[in-house]
Amino acid sequence: MIKKTLKNKTFNLSPPSLLALGFLSFIAIGTVLLKLPISNNGHFSWMDALFTATSAVTITGLSVVNIGQSLTTTGQIILLFLIQCGGLGFMTFAILAALSLAPQLGLKQQMMAQDSLGQTSLSKVTFIAQSVFFYTLFFEIIGITVLTTIWTSQFGFAHALYYAFFYSISSFNNAGFSLFPDSLMSFQSHYFACLTISFLYILGGIGFLVLMDIKQNKRWKRLSTNSKVVLSTIAILNISSFLLIWLLEANNPLTLSQMNLGEQALNAWFQATVPRSSGFNTLDTASLMNSSTLITMFLMFIGGGSLSTAGGIKVGTFFILVLSVISFLRRNGEIRAFNHSISYANTFKALAVVVITLSLIFVGLITLLILEPHKDFLNLFFEVVSAACTVGLSRGVTGELHNGSLFVLSLLMFAGRLGPLTLAYLIATPKKSRLKHPSADIQIG
Questions:
Q1: Residue 353 in contact with residue 421, Cβ under 8 Å?
Q2: CB atoms within 10 A of CB 159
Q3: Is the pLDDT of residue 9 over 50?
Q4: CA 122/CA 264 separation, integer angstroms
Q5: What is the pTM of this model?
């Protein structure tokens, strides 16, 4: 625990508490900055500012206003700064700031960073924080360069550069904020733009540890088990959901049926990969078939890789749970992946993440159903999953919700960004006991 003394009063703050306070500070500062007259067009309430700032810092992308019209250029730059802060993470910024003042982090600061970055080795924390910064900068510069080249003929160089700057940051950080009122629906036939944006949010959602492992080892056989799990699971999910959504929406006149074969493939791919946490859409989400909507919600729940800009329970968690079920059904004595065993501690952790996330979704949905009794159940359910898993996709009801409902969604976005385990650590005091209790057989199933 980290102690702070003020006027003879001692406060015990755990690393998760400091992390939560860091994000809250960014949200509070962002709310005030977005409410300034220079940041908006004047029709921007305090709730609009709070919701937008929370959505940006938690890199969700849900919005109650048209960002391109409601925010000035200054407001949009502030929004991008909040997105970048949320994407890189408060503790990463704190580590980089500390490095500029001292050659080495102290033990307490390392413990804080260790908790934020999910690492068990203190020696890796500083290296990872630096890598996160440079990887983000590298891929965002690539995105800016490519998108500027693509859009110059359409918007002119100056506007193309600004749009490329905005969408590269929003894409790689899986934020999903758009300057256009229809997100990216006007780019349904723009192959290179959609594929570039898709490339950015997929890379951002893989996870920095995996990207570092690929750079260092290069060959599949030499990659860590974690990297193999993340890459293989993401590939399977993306390809299978792409084929499913294409098949389900091919005859839907409101989505794919009016497009040629190439455009159908492009938009099916975009719609299949975007729910992993990005929040952009080239198809009208409200017009999807119910089956496609359910698949989208399932993908939002899974999310991306750990230590990434994506949300959800993470693909590693999903993989461990699926493998645990398979191992149980086969009566295997251990859970194995790529010739390595997975500890029961990791299985319990994965189960805890899923249960806490489902609990957040359940409580959020019940609350919204009470506050919005006349709204469609599926629309509210979709909105809650999108907020709790920090995705940002919507079926178009965000701007129609009351302030109380928007505040609930803000809490869900904040909890989802912190992560369910961090949230559990915040509200539960760990207790250790030396007593050993006799085992009991409880009937299951």
A1: yes
A2: 13
A3: no
A4: 47
A5: 0.89
